[in-house]
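Reply to dn_fold:

You asked what the input looked like. This is it:
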Amino acid sequence: MEQVKVLSAWFSPFGMRVLIALEEIGVKYDYLEEALPNKSELLLQMNPVHKKVPVLIHNNQPICESLIILQYIDETWDSKQVSPFDRALALFWADFADKKFFDSGIRIVKSKDEAQEQAKRDLLENLQFLEGALKEMSAGGSLPFFGGKVFGFVDIALAPYVSWFHIFETIGNFKIPFETEYPLLDAWSKRCMKRESVKKILPSSDRLLDRIFQIRKRFVVD
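and this is what came back:
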């Protein structure tokens, strides 16, 4: 009997993408919540190098780092054929979203004053890059997803960030001009929120906002 477990924390966008991928393909799994920052012995055993969530445990073998996990899920359970170029392109933009877009968003959460203003400018610039990538990968916007007709690797990797847009706006006290500056991303995010896998996994904005305010208090005195 195949055994699949996921170690994660409910507010982690990296864990959310793993769960969305499993839901999309229909893989049955057991979810084990980590009460961070108190890390379980199982987490320390399964990910002794980074000691972070998420971890996918497949037949007692751990796979760590969310984008690597998504690749593993694709190669293990998904039958869609993807060209090497398309796979490399998807990995590039998923990695960009983590290292550039989400990084700028987290800097909004963890800073104030001019540092926060710079983070907001960086976030808007990074959204412009993602808008351009979506335009290219969706045939100018005629197709619904980064994966073209299918809800693919980049879509799964980015979908959890939809629930963070409101977080960044609230903490940064600004409005992301989706309708005027990023219309393709605006339409894409609305499509994502209609998918059963996304609706099932993403937490409510209010619950997530409460958690992120707690994290902010560790870094910033308002």
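The radius of gyration is 17 Å.
Hope that clears it up.
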